[in-house]
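[Discussion] Sanity-checking designs against the backbone

I'm trying to build intuition for which residues belong where. Below is a structure token string of 368 positions. I'd appreciate it if someone posts a full sequence so I can compare it with mine line by line.
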């Protein structure tokens, strides 16, 4: 029997992870040379890591683990070191889109695992130049000569990336979990392209999928419906998201579970990687309620539609875990201040105002 040829590994760029490594190194007193010496590698190797010419993802697992640990020992900020995984995920997604091969749809990273907000922020950094929240507002360190302020892809590569994403979204076979995930995530990332033609395509494609919003409670299309509704809200149409909250979440235990599981995974309160969206309906998904409360509190804002989603999610979280304000009084006080401001200043839907008032009441009760 003739052995089947082994597929060659896809080439991976290291631009984003290299930039994160450079930022982590700059959080220490080390220069490239002194950091290379401290790590026991030659200067050319370390410079290759930071520039992306030598992608971190190509390192052996043991060597990469050693690098992460040594960076922490050498004083690099822990939050920056923690972003390396998301940065490498983003590099892999970009590489698969800029250098597709015959496996592009079968094994594209967007169809292999559910990506997180950190990964999405890394991609946005490379595609729009907007820094992740963890890096926003950081003072720029003194550097010699002109140095890029972000791992922004050149304009031709950005156009090629978005073109490939739109092709993936249109051609993904939504007959199995992998195809559904590929379509959902490719369509979501396509919305980062703000050119007039791209915005028009995204809006038309999203509206063509509005049929998935008609279902009540949990369904196999629940995650796709949620992504469709939130993307439409981001484009200025909050009505589908308001309807989705009413139909597919409120008063449906599985829908409420799915929403909290989705948030927990997206916001980093759940650490187990997931290969598809089916984990969302698991009542024992296993995530940290305090981490989720903190992330939802920090994200609560008045954007149309989104304020309703955040408010309903906070209400559901505190209903399921009423002990949370007592477990973290400082966090509860911060949320109390935000809810008070939104209730006094915000233009809220009837449901959002009712649920936000309930959240506000629970927080005040736990302070007395």
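Best answer:
Here's mine. Compare freely.
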């Amino acid at each position: 029997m003739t052995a089947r040829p082994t597929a060659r590994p896809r080439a991976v760029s290291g631009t984003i992870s290299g930039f994160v490594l450079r930022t982590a190194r700059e959080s220490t007193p080390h220069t490239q040379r002194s950091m290379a010496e401290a790590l026991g590698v030659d200067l050319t190797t370390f410079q290759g890591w930071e520039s992306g010419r030598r992608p971190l993802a190509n390192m052996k697992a043991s060597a990469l683990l050693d690098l992460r640990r040594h960076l922490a020992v050498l004083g690099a900020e822990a939050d920056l070191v923690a972003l390396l995984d998301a940065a490498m995920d983003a590099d892999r997604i970009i590489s698969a889109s800029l250098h597709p091969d015959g496996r592009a749809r079968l094994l594209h990273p967007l169809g292999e695992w559910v990506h997180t907000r950190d990964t999405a922020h890394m991609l946005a950094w490379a595609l729009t130049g907007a820094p992740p929240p963890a890096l926003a507002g950081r003072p720029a360190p003194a550097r010699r000569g002109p140095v890029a302020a972000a791992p922004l892809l050149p304009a031709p590569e950005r156009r090629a990336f978005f073109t490939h994403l739109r092709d993936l979204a249109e051609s993904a076979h939504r007959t199995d979990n992998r195809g559904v995930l590929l379509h959902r995530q490719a369509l979501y990332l396509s919305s980062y392209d703000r050119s007039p033609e791209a915005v028009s395509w995204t809006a038309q494609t999203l509206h063509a999928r509005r049929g998935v919003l008609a279902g009540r409670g949990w369904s196999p299309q629940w995650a796709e419906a949620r992504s469709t509704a939130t993307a439409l809200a981001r484009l200025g149409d909050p009505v589908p998201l308001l309807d989705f909250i009413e139909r597919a979440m409120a008063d449906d235990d599985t829908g409420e579970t799915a929403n909290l599981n989705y948030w927990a995974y997206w916001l980093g309160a759940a650490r187990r990687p997931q290969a598809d969206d089916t984990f969302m309906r698991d009542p024992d998904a296993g995530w940290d309620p305090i981490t989720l409360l903190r992330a939802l509190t920090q994200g609560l804002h008045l954007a149309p539609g989104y304020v309703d989603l955040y408010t309903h999610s906070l209400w559901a979280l505190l209903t399921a875990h009423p002990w949370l304000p007592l477990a973290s009084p400082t966090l509860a006080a911060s949320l109390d201040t935000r809810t008070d401001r939104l209730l006094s200043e915000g233009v809220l839907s009837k449901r959002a105002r009712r649920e936000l008032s309930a959240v506000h009441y629970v927080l005040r009760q736990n302070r007395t």
